[in-house]
Amino acid sequence: MTTEIQRFQSTRRLSRVVLHGDTVYVAGVTASRSSGDIGEQTADVLGKIDDYLASVGSARDKLLSVQIWLKDIQRDFAGMNAVWESWIPEGAVPARATCEAKLASPDLLVEIIVTAAR
Amino acid sequence: MTTEIQRFQSTRRLSRVVLHGDTVYVAGVTASRSSGDIGEQTADVLGKIDDYLASVGSARDKLLSVQIWLKDIQRDFAGMNAVWESWIPEGAVPARATCEAKLASPDLLVEIIVTAAR
Amino acid sequence: MTTEIQRFQSTRRLSRVVLHGDTVYVAGVTASRSSGDIGEQTADVLGKIDDYLASVGSARDKLLSVQIWLKDIQRDFAGMNAVWESWIPEGAVPARATCEAKLASPDLLVEIIVTAAR
C-alpha cells in the first residue's frame, strides 16, 4: 500500500503544506507582522492557515489536531484564545494542546501547527 | 477520497477527542487535581486518557505516538516515567518524545498529547 | 475498519518506530554523542532517523511532518538548519516547526520528531 505525497509551497527547508492521502500537514505558522500584539499575531497566523488549507481543498472546519506555542503563556493565553474562538467554527473544533516555547525570532509571540483533513 | 471527521466532548475551544478514519487525536491532557506531585498528576492524566480512548473504542494498547510536556524535566522525568511504565502495556508501547515546557497554569506539572489507532 | 499497528525497536518505555497503515511515527531522536556541537548532534540525529526509516521501508524523501526542539534556538537555529538543508532532498521537504525546549539531559542540544510515509 503506497499513498502519494504531495508538497506545496516548498523552500529548501520546508514545505508549507504536505498532503498524504486525505491528511494535510501544515508547517508551523508565525506572523509576518511580528510587531503586533498577541491578538494581531494570532489573527495573522490564522489567516495564513486559511490560505494554506484552501490551497489543497481543506478549510478551518476540517482541522483534526492543533499545537499552539506561545512565547509567554501567562500573559498571552487569554488573548490568543479570544481570537481563536472567534475564528474556529462552533461544532468543528479540533483536538488542541498549548504550551510556552521560545520561537525562532524573539518578536514572535505565537506559532500554530495544524493537521487537517482534506 | 473523503473520510468523515467525528468530534467528541467539544467545547467552544477544542474537542477532547477527534476521530478521522481509524486515527484518534486526543487533546493535550492535564491533571484535574493540580495540587498533586508528578506521580499523582501523571496517574490522573493517564486515567483521563483511558476514558477518552474508551469513548471511541480505542485503548492504551493502541497508542501510536505520544508527546509529553513536563514543567520541570530534570526534577520530574523519573517520576513521570515510573507511572508511565506501570501504565503502558509491555509490547504495545508507542513512539514518544518528552521535553520541558511551561503549561497553561503554573501548578500543572505534566501534559500528555496522544495519537492512537481505533 | 481496523489497520494493524506494528512496533519496532521497543523498550519498556517507547518504540523507536511505529507503523500504522502507511504512516510511520518515529520517537523523538537525540544524539548519542551528546558532547558534540549542534552540527555534530544534528548529523548524528539525522543519521539515526535514516536508519529508523530504512528499517520499515521508508526514507528521508518520504517525510510528512517534522518537529525540531532546540535547547538554544538563538544560538543553534542556523547551525541546525545548515545540516538539515544538506540532508533533506530538494523537492521532498516536509512540513516543519521548530521551537526552543529543554530536553531530557542538559547536554542534548537538539531532538527531532518525524512522521513519514512508507
Report what the structure shows.
The structure is a homotrimer of 118-residue chains. Chain A contains two helices and six strands; from the N terminus they run βββαβαββ. The first copy, chain A, has helices at residues 38-54, 73-87; strands spanning 5-10, 15-20, 23-26, 63-70, 95-100, 110-117. In chain A, strands 1-2-3-6-4-5 form a six-stranded mixed beta sheet, covered by helices on one side. In chain A, α1 (38-54) crosses α2 (73-87). Chain A is globular, with a radius of gyration of 14 Å. Chain B binds chain C through residues 21-23, 62, 64-67, 73-74, 77, 81, 84-85, 88, 90-101, 115, 117-118, and chain C through 1-3, 5, 7, 10-18, 20-21, 23, 25-28, 67, 69, 101-104, 106, 111, 113, 115.
Summarize the model shown.
Three copies of one chain form a homotrimer. With 118 residues, the first copy, chain A, is of the alpha+beta class.
Total helices of chain A: the number is 2
Oligomer classification: homotrimer
Round the mean pLDDT of chain A to the nearest integer and report it: 96
Largest sheet of chain A: 6 strands, mixed
Number of DSSP strand runs of chain A: 6
Radius of gyration of chain A: 14 Å
Q: Structural class of the secondary elements of chain A?
A: alpha+beta
Q: Write down the secondary-structure element order of chain A.
A: EEEHEHEE
Principal-axis shape of chain A equals globular
Largest sheet of chain A, order of strands side by side?
A: 1-2-3-6-4-5
Biggest interface, residues from each chain: A-B, 30 and 31 residues
DSSP strand content of chain A: 25-35%
Question: Uncertain spans of chain A, ≥5 residues at pLDDT below 50?
Answer: none
Helix content of chain A: 25-40%
Instruction: Compute the separation of the termini of chain A in Å.
Output: 20 Å
